Amino acid sequence: MPKNKTEVAPKKGMARLFEIAKAHKGLVVLSGVFAVLASAASFIPYLAVYFLIREIVAVFPDFTRLGAAGMMNYGLAALLGVFANVLFYFTALVFSHIAAYGTVYELKVHFVAHITRLPLGFHIGTGSGGLRKIMDENIESTESFIGHQLPDMIAAFAAPVFMLVLLFAVNWRYGLASLAGILIAFMIQAMAYGGEKQKARMKEYQSSLEAMSVAAVEYIRGIAVVKAFHQTVYSFKRLHDAITAYTRIVISFTLNWENVMSGYITLTHSIYLFLIPVGIFIAGHTTDYAAFASDFLFYLVFVPAIASILMKIMYTSSISMQVAGNVERMDEVLQKKVMPLTENPQRPKGYEVGFENVSFSYTENPEDAALDRVSFIAKQGETTAIVGPSGGGKSTIAHLIPRFYDVHTGAIRIGGVDIRDMETADLMDTVSFVFQDTWLFKQSIMENIRMGKPGATDEEIIAAAKAARCHDCIAALPEGYQTVFGRKGVHLSGGETQRIAIARALVKNAPVLVLDEATAFSDPENEWLIRQALGELMQGKTVIMIAHRLSTVSNAHHILVMDKGRLVEEGAHRDLLKRRGRYHDLWDTYTQTLSWRLEKGGASHD
Ligand SMILES: Nc1ncnc2c1ncn2[C@@H]1O[C@H](COP(=O)(O)OP(=O)(O)OP(=O)(O)O)[C@@H](O)[C@H]1O
Ligand SMILES: [Mg+2]
Questions:
Q1: Is residue 127 within 6 Å of ligand 1 at its C-beta?
Q2: CA dist 13 → 88, 286, 314, 558 (Å)
Q3: Looking at residue 209, what is its pLDDT?
Q4: Helix (H) or strand (E) holding 331
Q5: Residue nearest to atom 31 of ligand 1 (CA)
């Protein structure tokens, strides 16, 4: 069996980001080297200014002794430093961007490859919107991390090293004074950043943000209902609560930061205050006032730069934390187990579908079993109907046959072969399904039906549409079969959409057919059309059909009654009625509502 490539080492945060960056190690290291060079070059102007100050102070107060050429050279050196800084930084970004785009490309390819191998059921649960966001935003953000934050961060961490060297090289006493200021600023920051409490707060902040966006999406989805019932925002309690909770957390979060941040920023901008006592001390103990003046002036010029150097460290690390969060979302999906592929695929010898002691639950907890030890056989060429109350597990049975999910215990066999031992393509060729929520793609109706069998001729498709009783409604569309579904002005009813989905299944003509009947479109005309369409579809097939109208069921060869995930009764219509059990009860209720409906209908015609 191919080794499961998707077992991602469970690294998180920065460690995970570095792991991702390692894919293009050479480029990233090159970019880092240039970032460090750029950072070193950025100090050249300060050095030039220092020497300039020294020259000026040396000739004070007779400035005529200043050599113009020497001055110009310092100016040029400063300019060169700036220029080198820009050039090196640019080079660093070129390398980092090549690495970044390569990484994003590989991550996306890996991600797509992974999600196509996930159980189909995963996609039902997750929805395309969430996956698209991961592709478009989360993975994309690693581009900004590797392309920008990483070189910036390397530069930001290299800068303090150069800074300290410079601080101590010129005059270690001032250097010590500045370092004291810097250390105090850092201690304040460490107090705010470190600590479990802060981490917990950050988590709380993240999840409240998420809750708010989930509630907002839900609110927008339900806007039609909200409008129809004249509801206000306040009546949409969940969104309102989410916004209030978010506001509360953000305010307390911000207030908590207020003191720390003001302290930190004030300190980093006021490091010269630490210089003054040292300056006074040195002035009192020296005779070389020229050296004293030039040193002191240099530190006064240089020390404000410390603030911006330290702020950069903070800034780059906070953005990197966001990217790390984005990557975590991607990893959550990558850690989902893919469907294991079979080692020696087998082809079914017939098309009988058998459930053997199948248990399944949608969650990790086997207690909430959606199916509990279900066994039955759906014979080849026969129709097996599944009935039972809502939530009984009917759709779950339907979803397990095309392997939307894998069973937890037991096995499902087609023609004696465990479906897990079949090639995915074989299984898909063997089983076709029409589910409660049919899905048409934004392409022509013709192509929508052709999806059932790529390569089907137009004649085949039209024949299938006729058999599915949707030819007339398609022909009535503005561009007939070429009409693009989902375009403006193209209206298909739910029943018509279902019949197109049936045509798609007809074209596919697979030997096993799984039908999850839609209840929503039950006007008699459509019901009749769908029944006829299905009649064509079902001929000679192994049909497993979930029916909500028992009239459809009574013709089935075999009936399964599901309740709370268990198979409670099975047999033919007549036998089940005679047994006077669950099926009999269901039938009773059904016939009562039916006669009730007929009476009503009759009354309205009087
Ligand atoms: N995607 C899902 N995630 C978690 N639980 C689910 C999911 N789909 C169904 N369930 C649960 O599994 C159980 C069986 O659901 P199932 O959809 O199979 O019922 P059903 O018989 O088809 O009902 P209905 O007649 O309403 O269509 C229910 O308790 C349901 O809440
Ligand atoms: Mg269902």
A1: no
A2: 28, 52, 16, 56
A3: 83
A4: helix 289-334
A5: 391
Among protein residues, the one with the nearest Cα to ligand 1's atom 25 is: 390
Looking at 42-149, list the stretches that DSSP marks H as alpha helix, in order from N- to C-terminal side: 44-59, 68-117, 120-126, 128-133, 139-144
Express each pLDDT in 126-137 by its tens digit. 666 778 888 888
Q: Report helix, strand or coil for 421.
A: helix
HSE-up (13 A, CA, CB side) for residue 597: 8
Closest Cα to residue 411, out of 364, 361, 369, 357?
357
Which residue's CA lies nearest to atom 12 of ligand 1? 370
Mean of pLDDT values over 560-569: 94
Q: Could you tell me the domains of the chain?
A: 13-334 (1.20.1560.10), 353-437+505-605 (3.40.50.300)
Q: Tokens at residue 450, please?
A: 């052709």
Rounded to the nearest 10 degrees, the angle between the axes of helix 44-59 and helix 289-334 is: 170
Provide the whole-model pTM.
Answer: 0.69
Report the nearest atom of ligand 1 relative to the CA of 393: 18
Q: Which atom of ligand 1 is nearest to the CA of 397?
A: 18
CA distance 452 to 10: 40
Angle at 164 between CA 159 and CA 165, to 5 degrees: 100
Ligand in closest contact with the CA of 396: 1
Tell me the two tokens of residue 173: 């006493």
Span 239-255, pLDDT tens digits: 888 899 999 998 988 88
Does any ligand 1 atom lie closer than 6 A to the CB of residue 508? no
Contact 112, 4 (CB under 8 A): no
Cα distance between residue 509 and residue 452, in whole Å: 8
Cα–Cα distances (Å) from 396 to 123, 390, 393, 407, 501, in that order, read: 15, 11, 5, 10, 20
Instruction: Bin 224: left if φ > 0, else alpha if -120 < ψ < 50, else beta.
Output: alpha
Count CA atoms closer than 13 A to 278's CA, side-chain side.
22
- The 3-state DSSP class for residue 412 equals strand
Per-residue pLDDT for 606 more than 50? no
